[in-house]
Amino acid sequence: MPNRVRYAPSPTGFLHIGNARTALFNYLFARKTGGQMIVRIEDTDTERNVDTGIENQLSMLKWLGIDWDESIDRPGDYGPYRQLERLDIYQAIAQQLMDQGHAYKCYCTKEELEAEKAAQIARGEDKYHYSRKCLHAPEQDKPYAIRFLVPENQTYTFHDLVKGEVTFKSEDIGDWVMVKQNGIPTYNFACAVDDHFMEITHVLRGEDHITNTPRQMMIYHALGWDVPTYGHMTLIVNQHGKKLSKRDGDIIQFIEQYKNLGYAPEALFNFIALLGFSPGEQELLTPAELIEVFSAEKLSNHPATFDPQKLQFINHQTLKNLDLETFKTYTKPHLEAAGLITDQDEAWVDSLLDVFQERTTYGQEIVPLTESFLNAPFEWDEEMRTLMQEEGVKVLLQTFKDGLDPHHFDPVTLKAWIKESGQKTGAKGKMLFMPLRIATTASMHGPELPKLMHLLGFETTLERLEKSLQWVVSS
User: Fold this and answer.
1) What is the largest CA-CA distance in the chain?
2) What angle do CA 224, 230, 235 make, to 5 degrees?
3) Does 308 lie in the same domain as 182?
4) Cα-flanking dihedrals φ and ψ of residue 233, to 5°?
């Protein structure tokens, strides 16, 4: 039988970095081992469900490049794939557990349970366990939950793919609710039942789920089912070593936000894969290469640090190596939204993007990069004025201006003319390129000068050179 893994989102929110990592590692594991990946919708928390939560999560997974073999949009032999459509399965298993003496009805009200907990705290007890007062209660005509009867003096040990051997004691776990009074199963019960009937062989999930594992193992043991192999990935922390929180305003955390900012999905895929997995010395990898090198044994048992600068580096490397048409899909919409593109033709847009592609970290960044070039006032600061007073600058600017030809104003010709102007005037190095850059762009640094001049156009370049010559003469 092939390995079967699952990603089980709830519709309580949009796709977060942490959830995306869980999905991605399950995807890599399935594809590397020739297994199957299932996306199961855990929608039993009806009060917190968001209308578009699942739609967003599935669409963002697909955008990242993660696909699956079975789900609500790709039915297989193990459905339904929404938990609320599987209630009859949970009810049957809950009844079986009660019939076998592994579970019982609990008629306690919320107020009674709160009072019991308060009494235990008042007695100085350090953990709350249900008192089992309903364990042998007679049948009653009122609402009830179903609790699992935790065995006494039992240990639950499993080999975790990430953490090694892990052990829990039953004495640390009170009789827990399997089915709520409204008939909806709790997470641990539904999860165990679904994993069994969907024949999940490996459960790869976040470290925050590790305390759920013994409860799920209790269900497996009670029913004589095989326990899947578990792997609990370590926490994702910020650069201060604190657990990544959705309230951490310093880090963008939802996948859709990265898409809207113009990040490349393959770059985000690459970055997320490195959050707790070490592929070796080479870290810039395509999804296909990550599948090839992936191994659950290489998952780190140390917290994974979310480094925004590393993500920007990976995305920058990805964007600058794209062909121009693909790069345009990440950047042009942002230029249009900012009003920087109006009636310009595509050739001009292509020239603009070609100039700034090397410098663009993410799609939306094209706006401040180009805006500072297109709309900045043509003015010199003191450092520029000092440099432009150097000997030979006036002759260089005049020579270069006089040789400009509106019919041959392309980057290749301009590059050659810059070089020739230097030979004619004896200017070279910094004193060749810096004065020409200042005289045409009012900047001392920037992208390739011939491309910038071409982008400015012949008339603007000539006008700026004439104005610069006047400033040089009057200084």
Assistant:
1) 106
2) 145
3) no
4) -75, 145
Residues 452 and 338 reside in one and the same domain: no
Helix (H, G, I), strand (E, B) or coil at 162: coil
Co-location of 388 and 364 in the same domain: no
CA distance 357 to 175: 60
Tens digit of pLDDT for each residue in 369-409?
Answer: 998 888 888 999 999 999 999 999 999 999 999 999 999 99
Cβ atoms within 10 Å of 441's Cβ, excluding its own: 21
First-to-last CA distance in the chain?
83
CATH number of the CATH domain containing 259: 1.10.1160.10
- Indicate whether 161 and 140 sit together in one domain: yes
Same domain membership, residue 399 and residue 458: yes
246 is catalytic: yes
**β-strands 145-148, 103-106 pairing:** antiparallel
Q: 281 pLDDT exceeds 70?
A: yes
181 burial (CB, 10 Å; 0-12 / 13-18 / 19+) is: middle
Preceding peptide of 80 cis, ω within 30°: yes
Which among 242, 246, 419, 428 is annotated as catalytic? 246
The answer to whether the predicted template modeling score (pTM) of the entire model surpasses 0.70 is yes
Structure tokens given for 450: 């011939």
Is residue 206 domain-resident? no
Strand pairing of 4-7 and 36-39?
Answer: parallel
Last residue of a domain, one of 320, 338, 355: 320
Confidence of residue 343 (pLDDT cuts 50, 70, 90): confident
User: How many domains, in total, are found in the chain?
Assistant: 4
pLDDT in tens, 421-464: 999 999 999 999 999 999 999 999 888 999 999 999 999 999 99
- Asked whether residue 308 is domain-assigned, the answer is yes
Range of the domain at 354: 324-374
Quick check: is 51 in a domain?
A: no
